[in-house]
Each structure stands twice: as C-alpha cells, then as structure tokens.
Write a structure and sequence with these properties.
It contains four helices and five strands. It is α/β, with parallel strands linked by helices. It has a single domain, classed as Glutaredoxin (3-Layer(aba) Sandwich).
Length: 106
C-alpha cells in the first residue's frame, strides 16, 4: 500500500516511522515519474510489512521537497531512523530499487 504524504504529515509518516520508508518524490507532469509508478506499486506490495512506501507530490509539498534538496524527479529516497539512507534519481530498473531497499533492511 502506498501512502500519500505532504508537508503536513511527512514527519509523522516518514521521519517517525519505526520501519524504513521509501519516499517517491514525483509530479503529475513528469513522464519518468509515471513510468516508475507501477514499479513503486509492485514494491509496496512485495515489501508490505517490511517497509512503508510513501508518495510525495513536489508541486503540492514544495517545503518538504526543498528540505531534502530534491532537484530532479523522480527521486526515490529511503529513510531509516528519520534520516536519508539512500537516494535514487531518475527512472531505474526495479532491481536497482530493490537492491537499495534490501541493503537498508539489515
């Protein structure tokens, strides 16, 4: 399951999560974001209970996007214990995303 996050609930849903969180920084007009969306949905199902998957629309939540220096989208950030543990920018194969997640589940 994917959770929509924004400037208001980012701290609660992401930073205070007791499990790692994959945040997909995206926008409606971004074609690579649309390409990676089904992959993110699959990952959310495959890793259910192990990680939390959140989506943040950068146009609707510019403060959070700026706080994490998101300059290009899609940016996938893995948060662990309230801090960024890994970042992937751009459209990448599912295996690359899974490898980053697996590394941060240890």
């Amino acid at each position: 399951m994917e959770i929509e996050v924004n400037d208001n609930n980012f701290e609660t849903e992401v930073l205070k999560s007791n499990i790692p969180v994959l945040v997909d920084f995206w926008a409606d007009w971004c074609m690579p974001c649309k390409m990676v969306a089904p992959v993110i949905k699959e990952i959310a199902e495959e890793y259910s209970g192990k990680i939390k998957v959140c989506k943040l629309n950068v146009d609707n939540s510019p403060v959070t996007a700026a706080n994490y220096n998101v300059m290009s989208i899609p940016t996938l950030a893995i948060f662990k214990n309230g801090k960024i543990a890994d970042t992937i920018v751009g459209f990448v194969p599912k295996e690359r995303i899974k490898a980053a997640i697996d590394k941060n589940l240890l």
